[in-house]
Amino acid sequence: RAQRARNSKGFSLSRIHVTVTDRFRITSQTLKFLPSSPMPKHVTPLQIGLHSYEAAYEDVGQGPVVVLLHGFMGSSRCWRSLLPYLSPYYRCICLDQFGFGESSRPMIRYDIAKLVAFVKAFKDKLQLPSITLVGHSLGGWVAAAYALAHPDDVNGLVLVAPAGIRDDSFCGRYNHLRPLLWEAPVVDGLLWLMQPFAALAKQAKPLAQIRRIRHELNAQPAARSFLVHRMRPEDAIDTVEQEIHQLRVPTLVLAGDRDDTIPLWHCETYAAEIPAAQLAILPNADHSLPQTHASAVAEHLLPFLAALAHPISSLD
Questions:
Q1: Fewer CB within a 10 Å sphere, N or C end of the chain?
Q2: Residue 284 Rama label (left phi>0; alpha psi -120 to 50; beta)
Q3: pLDDT confidence of residue 203
Q4: What is the layout of strands, in order, in the sheet containing 278-282?
C-alpha cells in the first residue's frame, strides 16, 4: 500500500523549476492553430474482442504524437486551454475515454483494464507510432496502467494530478452521492417536487446543481460504475502503486499545491516510485490544472517533451 512519506525510504523527489524558451511562448500567431469555436470530433470504429465500439477524439497539430486522456466525468474538451501551447510543435490527439464524452458508453461494469484496452485499440486503429501519454486525474491512472501493460508503445509519460494510488480515506468520500446513483425514477420525481420549496429557501441553485450531477452521472455510465463499485477499501484492486516501480519511461508528474481532490502525497508516490521521474508542484493551483492553469502546465510540459527527442541518459 502506498505510504504518505515515500521519501523517508531514501527516494529523492525532484521538484523541477524550468523557464519556457521564446520558442514555446504563446502568441497570437500560436492561437491561429486552433479555431475559436469547438472543433468537431472525429469518430473511428474499434473492435475489442467480440464487441464493437466507437472512439471520439480531436486531432490537431503536427509532429511527434501526444495522446491526451481526460479525467473523471470529463471529455477531450478539458484540454482546450492547453492545445494552443502544444499544437504548433506536436500532433495532439485528445481522446474521449471509454464510457465518457462522445465515445461509446455501454452499460457495463467499468474498470481500468477496460479503459486501457480501449486506448490500445484506438492507438492500433490509427496506426500511431510510439506515443507520449498525457493524463489528468483518472486519465493519469489510465496512462500509468497503459505504460505498464504496453511499455513499448510509450516513449514518455506525463501524469497531471494523477489518480490511481490506493487511499482508503477516499472510501466514504462520495457516500452523499449514493441517492443520486439510484436508477429509480422516483428520485427524479422527488427532485422535481423539491423545486418550489428550494426556491422559497433560496436553495434553487444547489438543487439545480444536484439535478445536473444526477443527469451527468446517468449519462456517463463509466463515472456511475466507478462510484457504485468502489465504495469499499477492498474494491481498490487495480491501483498501480505496487507496480509503477517497474516503469522505465521518462515521466513527469505535475501537482497543484491546492488540490483538494488528489492529495499531494499521491503525486509524490508516483514520482518516488517511478525511476528518474520528475515532480513539479504548481503554486496556487487546484485540481483542474489543464483547464485553469494551462500556462503553468505548459511551462513544465514543453521542455519535458522537447527533451524526449534528445535524451541525455538511459533510465536503466
A1: C
A2: left
A3: 82
A4: 42-48, 51-60, 91-95, 65-69, 131-136, 154-160, 251-256, 278-282
